[in-house]
Task: structure prediction
Amino acid sequence: MRPELPTRRDEAWRWADLRHAEAFLETPAPANDALPETDHLWLDLAGPRQLFVAGQPVGAAAQAPTPDRTLPRHPLADLAAARATAGATLEIPAGADAGLVQLLHVGRGGAAHGITRVILGAGARLTLVESFADEGQDHWLNHRLDAELGPGAELVRVSRTLSGHGLVSDRAAVRMREASRFVHLTLGLGAASLRAEVEVLLEGAGAHAEVDGILLADGAAVLDALTRLDHRVPDTSSRQRWRLVAGGTAQASIAGGVAVARHAQKTDAEQSLKALLLRRTAAVNLKPELEIFADDVACAHGCTVGELDRAALFYLGTRGVPPAEAEALLTLAFVADALAGLPEGALQDALDAEARAWLARHAGGRA
Amino acid sequence: MSLPETLREEVRNPEAAAAVEALSTYRWGFTSDVEQEFAPKGLSEETVRFISAKKGEPEWMLEWRLRAFRLWQQMEPPQWAKLSIPPIDYQDAYYYAAPKTKPALKSLDELDPEIRRTYEKLGIPLEEQKVLAGVEGARRVAVDAVFDSVSVATTFREELKKVGVIFLSISEAIREHPELVRRHLGSVVPVRDNYFACLNSAVFSDGTFVLVPKGVRCPMELSTYFRINAENTGQFERTLIVAEEGSYVSYLEGCTAPMRDENQLHAAVVELIAETDAEIKYSTVQNWYPGDREGKGGIYNFVTKRALCRGARSKVSWTQVETGSAITWKYPSCVLMGEESVGEFYSVAVTNNFQQADTGTKMIHLGARTRSRIISKGISAGRSNNSYRGLVRIGPSATGARNFTQCDSLLLGDRCGAHTIPYIEVRNPSAQVEHEATTSKISEDQKFYAMSRGLPEEEAVALIVNGFCREVLQTLPMEFAVEAQKLLGISLEGSVG
Result:
């Protein structure tokens, strides 16, 4: 039976573009042994790497991880669990530091599903960069990450979409035990469609999550993100910082959610969602949502959509900075806010450089 | 009025318990007996024809209603709100109830004494009664009293007539100014806009029509008190206000309802049209029966309110204080079409016991340099749920549009919920949209201070809540502000301690 996909009539999918999911729902990516050129797709950072082409690992045996069945149901993630035939399992024992691991998923003319399973023991640490790209044709990459963070564990995950065609749907669902720390950055750079979701279940006191994102949309891209920070026990905290820039006829959207369960007192949750439009043909959508059932909490959100600060532009002009450069500089500063959650160092620098390069290409000629 | 047996045994001071209980039940829960004439129970084309015939409507009006009814039959009730709405049996309700026709009234003294007593119990006429009794210097407020579904008395008509303001019940307006009603009715809220608006279009019983002509500043605040009275009677009010070029009107709407066990459905539609340089100020205090402390009974308030700022520099300001109703589904909105038009929404929504409210606004910016401002204060107590839901949309042509939104939620107790669901959709790079929201509880320091000055806890909380709502309450006309402050206190009774 053909599974039902969500539509724009569903509130949570109001701004999503699932045309390629509909088109490729029953069309698996064709088998093809030819390897794509991927050198330019990796971040130039040390650490183990694994390439997946159309959902299949290259140079390794295919084995699908067991998904975490206790996670909330989800139409696309459930589909990934049912149809994925391969994936990566990263189980880090207590106290170990696994450093940085890169997984690269390349889509190819059809649908491919994938699962990454991360289990961190008490005090374990891992930095995981998952990148999504394609071979220059329409496709659908549907991916899920299931992660469990033991007490005091720390996971940094970057979901980086470079895809120029088709649709990438990536959903990270993370369970956090006490005093664990989770940092997530969604970096959407592509000109295609993206649906990026992050759901965090804060289930241990002292757990802290930072869920940030940068969506840089141009051409006819439809970049759509949704988060839900579910504070289930007392004394947990979260921060969300999202920066959106849309040019061309692109649309960038973020629905940022915070939920505080009854009895989850002393929750401290903040969201900052900001967007810039480069052209009148582009669109941005923001939805900072709060769902609160406990009274002793500090929950706030702030949102702005607007132009660059005219006073700052004028100031840079008086210092001799050409207008285009001044705009690029201020746009960069605007975007860089969302990188602040990442640990300082090579990873942060590499992503900053990517955002910088995108802005140099796209934000130079503002309308 | 008695405590459950199990609870009674636990209470050591039964007198105190009885006093608390008396306070926490609906103060204005009473019913009055006036002969009613009902439409047959249930909803069918026949009911629609009955209502239209009863009101002596022209053929086009009947056709309009029938079209709405046929569309409604194909529509589904909205499911997206954060509300748990028990299934509504639309066939198990009366759609028309009118007091029996009486000779036209020359003054309020001739009004049915039963109705007058009802007004007195409601405390409605305060200022109005003075004016009606001929007290010099009293502030002038025109009252179009809607008792159940049909206007019983309209006063001040002469004075309004002098300046050319048309202030009629909508049934009268259909008879006397059919061309005006026909031109504007459904032009802001189309028949098929949503499930409840569509239902209203088919069966609306009465309501108000106001037209303020070009350049006229309406000499008094216009006011309609709604009151649901007959058991099992849905109320389907229809309000249409047109402010022509350069005019100004302030309209007050306030309501209380008697206590009933049966759920009562209310699906009103309010349409406002502001032409060039016109301004409409629409204020509501809503205090319908919220159901008892166990969540039994109460009004379902499913209202569609929308303003069209059609002309340049026109302005519409919505202010609402929502304390009643078991379920509130209400989003007074502004379509900002004219250049530099302004939309404002000031709201206080209080929920207690098992009340549910999903309310907010939509600001649709279409014209250049349009501005909007949203201030929303939600207060949840008991086991209630209170959601702010709003949309700010800036269209591609709305160059230089501005919006500022502030949504604050206050939780009293740990069994209630406060939710904020704002949508921001921007299509123009020169727009500036700012949104801020906070959720908090009552500051213990503030409460301690107020109590140390001798205020009982409940009064201290009411004081702090009034302070929290200050920005909204100060936009209300004077007499409403006083009533609203009292209502906030009454609504929160039994929520502390």
Summary: The two ends of chain B are 21 Å apart (CA to CA). Chain B has 14 helices and 23 strands. Residues 36-491 of chain B form one domain.
